[in-house]
């Protein structure tokens, strides 16, 4: 009677092949994950800046806080920053003339560098 099963060498070869495949796939996965977050950040900044510009065009002043864009229905909600995972972490830039409002521009508070070498906070 013969016992069926895999030998130790067959198991080691299978594990080595699996490890090689994972060593190729995992870095690509994390690179694509970072790329996706950067794309979401760019789109969120574009949408919020567009809403701020429309608010200014309609009212002649900038919003006093980001939540004004939601209450006046320029945005449905303040987007979640993809790097800080919070809608409350946006950095607000006031206009030079503070009598025109308080929210002239927005930036992320993420302390990281992008894949192209620029800082996220400078976008």
Automatic annotation (TrEMBL):
The keyword Oxidoreductase does not apply. Transmembrane segments: none annotated. InterPro entries: Bac_GSPG_pilin, N_methyl_site, Pilin-like. The keyword Chaperone does not apply. Keywords: Methylation. This is Prepilin-type N-terminal cleavage/methylation domain-containing protein. It comes from Duganella qianjiadongensis.
């Amino acid at each position: 009677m013969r016992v069926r099963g895999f030998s130790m060498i067959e198991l080691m070869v299978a594990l080595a092949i699996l490890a090689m495949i994972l060593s190729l796939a995992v870095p690509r996965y994390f690179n694509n994950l970072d790329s996706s977050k950067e794309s979401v950040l760019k789109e969120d900044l574009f949408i919020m800046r567009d809403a701020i510009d429309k608010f200014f065009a309609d009212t002649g002043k900038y919003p006093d806080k980001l939540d004004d864009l939601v209450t006046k229905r320029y945005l449905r909600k303040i987007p979640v920053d993809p790097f800080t995972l919070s809608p409350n972490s946006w950095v607000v830039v006031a206009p030079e003339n503070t009598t025109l409002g308080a929210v002239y521009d927005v930036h992320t508070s993420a302390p990281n560098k992008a894949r192209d070498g620029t800082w996220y906070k400078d976008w």
